[in-house]
Amino acid sequence: MASSLDDYEQLASLLLPAGVRDFVAGGSGSETTLRRNRSALDAVTVTPRVLTGVSSPDPSTRLLGTPAAMPVAVAPMAYQQLVHPDGELALARAAAHAGIPYVISTLSSRPLEKIAAEATTWFQLYWLRDRSMVESLIDRAEQAGCAALMVTVDVPVMGRRLRDVRNSFQLPAEVVAANLVGARTEAHVGVAGASAVATHTASAFEPSLSWNDLEWIRRRCRLPLVVKGILDPRDARCAAEAGAEAVVVSNHGGRQLDGAPASIDALAAVVEVANCEVLLDSGVRSGTDVLRALALGASGVLIGRPLLWAMAVDAAAEALGLLTAELTQAMMLAGCATVADVAELTTGRA
């Protein structure tokens, strides 16, 4: 059994092919932002309160009106069958067991309807060149019972992920984008010195997504709207004005613009101006990180890579149980009985 979420990466690395391991672990460019996410979180200090009489902290909350056993949702991540034969179904079941929302990726390797049957889900939407397919995905998410629509706005093109380029990474034949028409794509065709996944993204995604398009989605979709990929407070304000109920402060796990700020460093300024719920994504690796995000004003976090590593060793439910235990203990040590209490803590920088 792992003693921390970081342990799962070491365990998974013994099992996964090198190309898959790099696809999961890697960031864009020189991976400056990937590293910065971790160092910036480590630099956040949280001053505990004492003599608060807390004996049994309650980490439960609501995210976008969805009940959650802790202020965490599983981040949208593509092609999860790369790390587990059941793909997204395995992680959705673990999320259901943990009592938290699971975010289905547009590029999931299992159909969104099958994933939605396993857990409380939100659907993550990439803006595709084929608008009719965008409409179809929104309709399917609504009909499948997804509780929110999360639009990712920081991928006009895929960041240059050098590990994938050097590995000439391509998807194996059995791993497909199950929600898209013509599941076998350029992502399965290897080209020396190129990422086949990036080639597919370039052909499928529409780079000119604008605020007008987001407003169209708001009119078109009945679900609560979440905008993921916000770092600038001005964009957070625009998202709320366009009708978003929440924004996700995220640099895509260091996989898009290398040199972008760490998400945790952008969080407070976004919270200050956003007239909506604010979640944090990128770099979360422990219950202490969740506490840090809450203390800085987030209502919850998304967690990604550690759960892929845990999936690879059939331990996704165990990993989420560990995260719950870590957060509960962190709340206890900080003198907080509830998630609302955490928001009152004082933070600083080491």
UniProtKB/TrEMBL annotation:
One GO MF term: FMN binding
Keyword Flavoprotein: yes
Residues that, per the record, bind FMN: 76-78, 105, 124, 152, 228, 250, 281-285, 304-305
Domain of life: Bacteria
Residue ranges of every copy of the FMN hydroxy acid dehydrogenase domain listed in the record: 1-350
The keyword ATP-binding is assigned to this record: no
Active site: H252 (proton acceptor)
Cofactor: FMN
Family annotation (SUPFAM superfamilies): FMN-linked oxidoreductases
UniProt keyword annotations, A-Z: Flavoprotein, FMN, Oxidoreductase
Pfam families, alphabetized: FMN_dh
Residues that coordinate or bind glyoxylate: Y126, R161, H252, R255
Family statement: Belongs to the FMN-dependent alpha-hydroxy acid dehydrogenase family.
Protein name: 4-hydroxymandelate oxidase
Species per Swiss-Prot/TrEMBL record: Kribbella voronezhensis
